[in-house]
Amino acid sequence: MDCPNCGDDLVPFAELPDDLRERLEADPDRGRQSVAHRRRKHTACPDCTLEIHGCGQPYAVPTDAVSQ
Questions:
Q1: DSSP codes, 4-67
Q2: Predicted model pTM
Q3: What spatial distance separates the first Cα and last Cα of the chain, rounded to whole Å?
Q4: Taking 80 as the threshold, does the pLDDT of residue 19 lie above it?
Q5: How far apart are CA 41 and CA 35, in angstroms?
């Protein structure tokens, strides 16, 4: 599946590179759902960091995606 923000491939959240996944997990603006839930249900774009719910709805939209 392609990222609707930048067009790169989305990957399961748990399969993001460790440094990126850990940074996103620690981000207080993305803490509305547990890390366990996000690892199990979300996909994410490793390039722009858009996070998508398992149901397909955006979860964490990168600031630069909404400021354009």
A1: TTT-PBPEEGGGS-HHHHHHHHH-GGGTTS-HHHHHHH-EE-TTT--EE-TTS-EEE--HHHH-
A2: 0.79
A3: 23
A4: yes
A5: 10
pLDDT for position 34: 87
pLDDT per residue as tens digits for the range 3-17: 988 999 999 999 999
**CA atoms of 38 and 48, how far apart (whole Å):** 17
The answer to whether the beta carbons of residues 58 and 37 sit under 8 Å apart is no
Cβ(27)–Cβ(59) under 8 Å? Answer: no
**Residue 68 and residue 44: Cα distance in Å, rounded?**
20
The amino acid at 57: Q
